[in-house]
Specification:
This protein is mostly helical. It is built from eight helices and no strands. The protein folds into three domains: 62 residues, no CATH class; 36 residues; 29 residues. It is 65% helix and 0% strand.
């Protein structure tokens, strides 16, 4: 096991502030006395802290662990969405939203459909069908079945 690098108290305070979510400049302000420093100086010092050979690996290690913990897969989202959709105790609008999210994984529910072939013929056929009476539509359906 590799021993952790020894940091000064202020360096450790900086690392702790970064791990707690502060940006580099704010973490520098939290760790060091910056009362007489210009913002540009604080920013420059914070950049130096970020590249310090003892500090940078510690911050990177913690950030990588956080990212790994927060990584959500499509499978995770689908599982939770299905739990919401199937739960009869949950508000109907939330269940519908969950089903809509789940449907995005299936191309047959997509709002975009690929049209192949002669589009003009399809449009003309749809226009002709739109003008047919119910009796004509029934006759056409019967003819198509036989």
């Amino acid at each position: 096991m590799v021993a952790e690098p020894r940091l000064t108290a202020k360096q450790q305070a900086y690392v702790t502030a970064r791990i707690e979510g502060l940006g580099p400049s704010d973490a520098y302000r939290a760790a060091y006395d910056c009362a007489n420093m210009l913002p540009a100086t604080i920013s420059r010092e914070a950049v130096e802290m970020e590249s310090h050979p003892k500090i940078a690996p510690l911050i990177a290690q913690v950030q990588a662990a956080v990212v790994e913990r927060l990584t959500i897969t499509a499978e995770d989202i689908s599982r939770v969405a299905w739990e919401i959709a199937a739960d009869g105790e949950i508000q109907p609008s939330a269940r519908v939203s969950a089903l809509a999210l789940l449907s995005r994984r299936h191309p047959e529910f997509s709002e975009k459909h690929e049209v192949t072939g002669d589009v003009r013929l399809r449009v003309e056929a749809l226009a002709a069908i739109a003008t047919m009476t119910p009796e004509q539509l029934k006759a056409l359906a019967e003819k198509a079945r036989s």
